[in-house]
């Protein structure tokens, strides 16, 4: 079973701290939580109070705020980890869905997982194609467990299957990044970081 703590710490390291880039579609962001998309998150109250610090130490004064750190962790646990039931998956797959979900949306990340599972079922010989709906429910979990069964294909080890599945999911993720900058060239400034994130 996947461990939330390991996944969370890696993603938060990717996201960094406070950012307010005018070209970022999420607008004001803290550790990957965009104010535009999550305006009611309680952490914004802590951040807004820190802006009033007369020492002019904002945003550096956020890094040691234990209350804010706790709210970030709670946000990701309640909005990403638990809804997607990621603890049922292998660590690497849970990490990929979680991290991509934070960056591109949880439903989108699950769709990449579902598309990859469909592509690897040998024309539905191993398990049926599923609807790519972004919901990580029982059918998706069943397909995943079926893919991992190696008794009839001894050349496909558990680790090799995970590696191939991750490659496919990363392909769909990169395809989305490329389509974003094709539609909006202003987003090209983020491409290096996005690509680095996929390959890490």
Could you give a short description of this structure?
This protein has helices at 4-15, 43-51, 66-81, 91-104, 106-119, 138-148, 158-183, 191-199, and strands at residues 18-19, 29-30, 33-34.
What report would you give on this structure?
By secondary structure, the chain is an all-alpha fold. The chain folds into 2 domains: 1-82, no CATH class; 89-200, no CATH class. It contains 8 helices and 3 strands, in the order αβββααααααα. Strands 1-2-3 form a 3-stranded antiparallel beta sheet, with no helix packed on it. Strand 2 and strand 3 (33-34) form a beta hairpin. The two termini are 21 Å apart. The mean pLDDT is 90.
Structural class: mainly alpha
Distance between the termini: 21 Å
Low-confidence stretches: none
> Could you tell me the mean pLDDT?
90
Question: What sort of overall outline do the alpha carbons produce when their principal axes are compared?
Answer: elongated
Using only C-alpha atoms, the radius of gyration works out to 19 Å
Total strands: the figure is 3
The major beta sheet can be summarized as: 3 strands, antiparallel
Helix content: 55-70%
Strand content: under 5%
Number of helices: 8
Fold topology:
Blueprint: H1 4-15, E1 18-19, E2 29-30, E3 33-34, H2 43-51, H3 66-81, H4 91-104, H5 106-119, H6 138-148, H7 158-183, H8 191-199
Antiparallel strand pairs: 1-2, 2-3
Features:
200 residues, single chain, mainly alpha, 56% helix, 2 domains
